[in-house]
Design brief:
six-stranded mixed beta sheet; two-stranded antiparallel ribbon; 9 helices; about 35% helix; about 20% strand
């Protein structure tokens, strides 16, 4: 019986992951740090620490509350949740939001499998789901599922509850969940707040410059790509453009605030900027904070 060759990593991922690796000096082990089951060193208690980790003899000796750090489990289970709803097909700069989402998911996925962890994937507003496994060949299969030719954003809207349902099940191993979306659906934060009870959660927010500013091109018809509602706007009016920009900025900040209130780590990536150093800087600062005992 002829064996089928495993899927290959896309060529577009190679330069991105080389840059990520260089910016992070090849240290993948702490990027996806989470509490494990094995007790480690003792340090002073800080707000948000698990009271079950208090070392009472050390507390009595020092007259300060001391807690145990925990050593991260050797193998972490990580899920990528990538939004493939219709709004993700929008893009006016270097790429669509969906293309950026897939590239960012690929870079994060490579860091995950290079550190020996297991990677799974859910396509929100799509039918794709891949159970967690380890290895580069498995990552290639995940990315093949996410490629626009396979999971092109269509007319569907994202259903956050459905996308995250399996990950909230007690049968799903505790781990890390990385959700990549524009988060236009207001249900995302509440669903992710529930998700943080079982998992460490990162939100990768993707956006496009045209979502924040209208060009001066006269009277135009705008269509909501998911609801298909139409609106006629005179973009030649400076007050119209100013009100649009103000409202867009306010809605975007409210989106980020609601995600952070859900105890989710948030990184903002844009289609018109070099997102690689932004993602690397976020992962680096996250590693430092978690290593110091900070909470997500």
């Amino acid at each position: 019986m002829r064996r089928t060759a495993p899927p290959r990593l896309p060529k577009s991922l190679i330069p991105v992951t080389r840059r990520i690796s260089g910016l992070l000096h090849g240290d993948y082990s702490g990027l996806l740090h989470r509490a494990g089951s094995e007790l480690g060193d003792i340090r002073r208690y800080t707000d948000g620490d698990d009271v079950r980790l208090i070392d009472w003899p050390a507390t009595a000796r020092t007259n300060e509350t001391q807690v145990h750090d925990t050593i991260a489990d050797h193998e972490l289970e990580v899920w990528l949740v990538v939004d493939a709803s219709a709004s993700m097909s929008f893009g006016t700069a270097r790429s669509t939001k969906y293309r950026l989402a897939v590239d960012a998911a690929g870079a994060i996925g490579l860091l995950i499998v290079q550190s020996g962890n297991r990677l799974g994937c859910v396509v929100a507003a799509g039918t794709g789901r891949i159970m967690p496994k380890s290895g580069i060949d498995h990552l290639a299969a995940v990315l093949a599922t996410l490629e626009p030719s396979t999971a092109e954003p269509g007319s569907a809207t994202a259903d956050p509850a459905a996308a995250l349902a399996m990950l909230m099940s007690p049968r799903t191993r505790r781990g890390l969940v990385v959700v990549v979306s524009d988060f236009l659906d207001s249900a995302w934060p509440s669903e992710m707040s529930r998700l943080t009870r079982r998992h460490d959660v990162i939100a990768v927010v993707v956006s496009d410059p045209r979502e924040f500013a209208l060009p001066d091109v006269g009277v135009i018809d705008l269509e909501d790509i998911e609801t298909h509602q139409m609106a006629t706007v005179d973009t030649s009016r400076a007050d119209v453009r100013a009100r649009f920009a103000e409202a867009a900025a306010r809605r975007f900040e409210a989106r980020l605030t609601s995600l952070r209130a859900a105890r989710v780590d948030v990184v903002d990536l844009r289609t018109d900027t070099d997102w690689v150093p932004v993602l690397a800087g976020f992962l680096r600062s996250r590693k430092r904070r978690l290593a110091a005992g900070g909470r997500t």
